[in-house]
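User: Teach me something about this protein's shape.
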Amino acid sequence: MKPPLLSPEEFRDLSRHFPDRSVLVVGDLMLDEYVWGEAGRISPEAPVPVVDVQRESLRLGGAANVARNIVSLGGRVELLALVGQDDYADSLRNLLDEEGIGSTGLVADPDRPTTRKTRIVASRQQVVRVDRESRAPLKGALRQNFIDRMVAAMEGAGGLVVSDYGKGVVDRDLMEVIAAEARDRDLFVAVDPKESHFYQYRNISVVTPNVHEASRATRIEIRDDASLEQAGRKLLAELQSEAVLITRGPDGMSLFRPDQATTHIPVMAREVYDVTGAGDTVIATFTLARSAGATLEQAAVLSNAAAAVVVGEIGTAAVTPRELEMAIEVGYPMGNAT
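Assistant: First, the predicted structure itself:
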């Protein structure tokens, strides 16, 4: 079978449609807080490094980082997610405004904090992460309001991303609403999954687990091509999805579709500093490309190239069309089918 090539010229033709496409992002957003410093000594109190703090920064994480990547690629986005009623929600809104992402879709829940993940980084190495969050499910009138707003926003969308980090937004009932409404609108839906929720994601377009999530969800230890194939096919059959894209770290990606050969896309990254947010970049690029007319194979190749860009930076990052085009030029031709 011919490899799924995507030339720089084909990408330029495709990316011209990005500004005309709008993607709805639904799910768990978070504030990524970074404390940057140097560690030159060990604490006398415990066998841990002492970090001399030099600066601090805030970045968009989770569903907000998906939205950021879509905007960075030139697409339009609507973000629907939960925040608390606290100063960190205000910080998130400010960051979204700076990125040109509307914050009117942020639904405030007074009973939960805004999800915040604090990473302490010393000499380009993450030392520890501190999480402040609630995983309580969304309930009552607030939940109904969220669903009503989501259904209304689906009307004008060209694609939908579900960003599930297990913080209470995504559950079986929500996914059933999404699947039904998307089917009525012929809307492409991509899910970045939480492993404990896997079998809630039925009858949608594509699920994008990493190899560890796919292994745990299927209870198949993925250790070679045969076990990978078995796991991918099991997910396809049980989820009844259009495709499953398994991201495999240093081994690239594998795209599974019913009644078609598996497409393996080799890794493109030259240097890997931080994989934080790489899954956000993958699903953002995949969904925007697909909504702009890319085939599933082309969308996978593009998302693989986008991931190669962002893992070369520390912290969550977003890729631009020019960076993506350059990555394609370096990696072209890419992919093979088996």
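Now, about its shape. The first strand starts at residue 22 and ends at 27. The radius of gyration is 20 Å. If you'd like, I can walk through any region in more detail.
User: That's plenty for now, thanks!
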